[in-house]
Design brief:
This protein has 235 residues and is an alpha/beta fold. It contains ten helices and eight strands. β3 and β4 form a beta hairpin. α1 crosses α10. The structure holds adenosine-5'-triphosphate (ATP) and magnesium ion (MG).
Length: 235
């Protein structure tokens, strides 16, 4: 069966704001909605998507595919949810993203969604991922440092004429000094996709390598990310 794949990159500019947390949960939530999903760790020099999904030992990675030493099928691992994971290497320091577009084109047609977990910053790894995506999802925390960096990432998307789905505001504590969601949405001039609380169950779920949508499905982050998946399907 040929599928019309949607390729979506998740980017933030600033590191550590929750891209991989969002991606690992979103893909499992989409799979729970009976979608065929592949997820790829484009963070080839700072991998951790596999760890979030409980895949800690594997012989082959995207790095090996990119350097031509193995075929893509040799670096695909099936998660219990049915999601196909293409992890980046946890041990290699090198990597060249020039063949990344080719990797993505080999996935298109087989999946409903191809979700790309992107590196922090706005350098070549990010450019390579965004350039082969149909759309981009932004992630920030409600802090000035993160919001100013996500604005740079957004500018990269605009320069590349990419569709921006909107911004997910993550790790909200509700402190008075946090930037309000409405202010973030209007500053960036993009829709607010979701607001995710800072929640202990997210950290616990990562520690056991299980997405919070499975670990604690009734927690606020799990419910919100499941809603994002549902809305993506209806979009
Ligand atoms: N909603 C949340 N509640 C509590 N902790 C969270 C939440 N989201 C993320 N975290 C914490 O923040 C850490 C960093 O998250 P994550 O690895 O998803 O960020 P990232 O943007 O992918 O980082 P990098 O830029 O390094 O790839 C997680 O390991 C987790 O401890
Ligand atoms: Mg990450």
């Amino acid at each position: 069966m040929i599928r019309v794949s949607r390729v979506i990159s998740v980017i933030s500019g600033k590191g550590g704001v929750g891209k991989t947390t969002l991606v690992s949960n979103l893909v499992v939530a989409l799979s729970h909605l009976d979608k065929r999903v592949a997820v790829i760790d484009a963070n080839i020099t700072g991998a951790n998507l596999s760890v979030h999904l409980g895949l800690v030992q594997y012989d082959n990675s995207l790095n090996d595919v990119l350097d031509g030493s193995i075929d893509l099928s040799g670096a695909m691992y099936r998660h219990g949810s049915g999601v196909d994971i293409i992890p980046a290497s946890l041990t290699r320091l090198d990597g060249d993203m020039s063949g990344f577009k080719n990797v993505i084109s080999n996935l298109v047609g087989y999946y409903d969604y191809v979700i790309i977990d992107v590196a922090a910053g706005i350098e070549s790894e990010v450019y390579a991922a965004v350039s082969c995506s149909d759309a981009v999802m932004l992630v920030t925390t409600p802090e000035l440092t993160a919001v100013s960096n996500v604005a740079l990432a957004l500018r990269l998307c605009h320069n590349m004429s990419k569709t921006v789905l909107g911004v997910v505001i993550n790790q909200i504590h509700g402190d008075s000094f946090e930037i309000k969601s409405d202010a973030i949405g209007s500053f960036l001039d993009v829709p607010i996709i979701a607001r995710i609380e800072d929640h202990k169950h997210v950290r616990e779920s990562i520690a056991v390598g299980m997405p919070v949508v499975d670990y604690s499905p009734l927690s606020q982050p799990a419910k919100v990310i499941s809603d994002i998946a549902q809305n993506l399907i209806e979009y």
